[in-house]
Amino acid sequence: MRRFTLLTIALSSTVAFLLGVIIAGGVTPGAVVSTAGERASAPSELPRPLRAAAMPGVVNFADVAERMNAAVVNVEATSKSSRDPRPRRGEVEPPGRDYEGPRQGSGSGFLIDRDGHILTNHHVIEGAERITVTMADGRAFRGEVVGSDPAIDVALLRIEAEGRLPEAPLGNSDQLRVGEWVCAIGNPLGYVHSVTVGVVSFVGRKLFDPSLDDYIQTDAAINFGNSGGPLINAAGQVVGINSAISSRASNIGFAVPINQAIAILPQLKEHGRVSRGFIGVGLTDVTPALQRALKLSVSRGAMVQDVTAGSPAERAGLRPYDVVLTVEGRAVGSNEELIRDISSRQPGSLARLEVLREGRRHTMQVKLAQRPQRDRQENTEELGARPRPRLPTPNEAPLGISVRELDRGAAGRVEVPGGVQGVVVSLVDPTGAAFQSPLRRGFVIMEINKRPVKTVRDYQRLVAAARPGEVLAMFVYDPTLGQRSLVAVTVE
After folding, report:
1. Among 85, 350, 355, 361, which residue has the least CB neighbours within 10 Å?
2. Highest-pLDDT range among 31-35, 368-372, 396-400
3. Is there a catalytic annotation at residue 113?
């Protein structure tokens, strides 16, 4: 009797377990479960796999690509005459290029409205005499350049086509987060309408012009020919324009934030170019280190490092070490905020600045000029060659810097303009305190904590008087950029 009872309980438990598994969907009715726990196929039809979109938290870029693909176009730019033989950013020159013959380049783009407007990169259509836009359905149209902005590498094209055109919905790049999934659609290396997927690796990357660049970095594969194509978020919205790749890695790409492009669309449509306000200063953020070194009463703001000769800033009386606190009454938290505000204003307009100087607040009126175009050079890993590691010598302590007099010969070698006085950095010890700062060989140290440095003896006296842990604000001239800047170094 006892044995019968135990057998009944065991059978009941087994049946209940199998029914529970079937109801939960873990085993399909008709399948056989082996004694080893492995599922064996049955003659009945297997269930269809779950769609990724039905699973919470899973992004289905197949659906995104299906919706967006029709709005992505191929852009071919051709010119009859030769151009500068140097490759454009985003291009690789094949060996044996004949520069006297016609030139043809290829990139991507995407439709943004029903009127046929297309966003792409400036470098894709730069110098083009004929532009051909090919749709996903094979239709080809003559493209017209509506406007272009080399500063952020954006161009606006337009095509004339009958019927309704597909358009790509635009998202908000300001809401992007690092780690968010994105996909890129374009024509890399001639493979039209290729889709790659990755994540946002970084936002706000500086590559060419630190004052304007705000690139989205992604590991979604971007190659030559992807330039101008859309970077798309999981909601199927364009958040960037794919623009550049790293020359040192195959999985690091960069895209112009779509909000930057949207902001200049009215000017591109109306004028064909973008005008930006300019005051002519080099800026840095007020950091805790600079606040300590210069005994500033504020912890935020844009500090003036350099003032361009003949610029609106010089005419208004701005000087190095001034801290810009507000523009037209609006607080300035960083140098990027000030640049963004000034750049959004029209040349010729007036901007009222509140400036902190020597502990006192001053108000200045600046008449803005037109922002000049700057050459967009490829980013290098470092500005100067670092010296080989070696043991520090006593005369370099406590910063690990060797300096020499700025004589006529040294001034010629490092291309120092007239009016710059100081000592030249001849070596930065890799084990010293200054190595982690932007200070490099060839820089000219002009001041330390607002005190002039004219000779090596001046430098040694000021550094020797500093206590361990004290921060020194060095006002330097950078010959690689041709501008002055502030560098903070903590004494060890």
Report:
1. 85
2. 368-372
3. no
User: In the predicted model, is pLDDT for residue 27 greater than 70?
Assistant: no
Structure tokens, 148: 């272009």
CATH code linked to domain 394-490: 2.30.42.10
Residue 135 has pLDDT above 60, yes or no: yes
Which of 149, 153, 219, 429 is the catalytic position?
A: 153
Per-residue CA distances from 329 to 114, 332, 354 (Å): 40, 9, 8
Q: Do 277-370 and 394-490 fold alike per CATH?
A: yes
Which one from 123, 201, 213, 343 is the annotated catalytic residue? Answer: 123
Structure tokens at 294: 């210069």
Strand, helix or coil for residue 335: helix
The active-site residue out of 227, 243, 343, 402 is 227
Q: Where are the domains of the chain?
A: 61-85+100-274, 277-370, 394-490
| Residue 227: active-site member | yes
Helix (H, G, I), strand (E, B) or coil at 165: coil
In angstroms, the CA 87 to CA 198 distance is 28
